[in-house]
TrEMBL record:
Organism: Gracilibacillus dipsosauri
Protein name: Quinolone resistance protein
Pfam families, per the entry: Pentapeptide (PF00805), Pentapeptide_4 (PF13599)
Organism superkingdom: Bacteria
Length: 215
């Protein structure tokens, strides 16, 4: 993963004990911390609100779970399936998603800081009206993802599929998408100003201006 800036990695102890879903309900408030959950399915549908810190989820399935307004800090999701999970209005900081299925995940109106998406499938995910600070998407499928009216501060897209991504009302100045692939993108010329693209991509975007490129 090549980064033009450095993100803070999840701060997790090495000696985590094995945990289970039921551990979330051990306190008056929904909370899970300092454990590792592996190869299981989260059967509860609604954790509202929940605080999760210093936890590793590996091979865990979250079938359409609602984590609205969740506070996730120092968390790793590895080979997990979070498809259609509701993470609206969440606080997500120092979190890593590695080789995860994130189809249709709703991150809208959330705050993401020092978050990495590596080798994930995040088609139809939504980051609408979210704030992304120090966030990396690396080799991730983002087809039809929605970034409407999002705020980007140090966001990087590397070798990702961005076909049909929606960037309406999102400023892309300084954002480098030159290594990514797409046939079509929903974006205005105003949003594109200052965006870093490859020569081939520039030819495609010229059509937005009604230009005809002579070979």
């Amino acid at each position: 993963m090549t980064k033009n800036f450095k993100i803070k990695l999840p701060e997790i102890p090495f000696d985590l004990e094995e945990g289970k879903e039921g551990d979330i309900f051990t306190k008056e408030e929904l909370e899970l911390s300092n454990c590792k959950i592996s190869n299981s399915m989260i059967s509860s549908k609604n954790f509202y609100p929940v605080m999760i810190s210093k936890v590793i989820f590996k091979g865990v399935t979250f079938p359409s779970v609602s984590l609205e307004r969740a506070d996730l800090t120092d968390v790793i999701f590895e080979n997990c399936d979070l498809s259609n999970v509701n993470l609206r209005q969440g606080s997500i900081h120092r979190v890593a998603f590695k080789d995860c299925k994130l189809l249709g995940v709703d991150f809208s109106e959330s705050s993401l800081g020092n978050v990495s998406f590596e080798g994930c499938i995040a088609r139809f995910s939504s980051f609408a009206e979210s704030r992304l600070n120090q966030v990396i998407f690396d080799q991730t499928s983002l087809q039809n993802a929605n970034y409407y009216h999002s705020k980007f501060i140090n966001v990087e897209f590397q070798k990702s599929d961005m076909n049909e991504v929606d960037f309406h009302q999102t400023v892309l100045k300084g954002i480098d998408i030159s290594t990514c692939t797409f046939d079509r993108m929903n974006v205005s010329m105003e949003s594109l100003e200052g965006c870093v693209v490859s020569p081939e991509q520039a030819i495609g975007f010229s059509r937005l201006l009604g230009l005809k490129v002579k070979q």
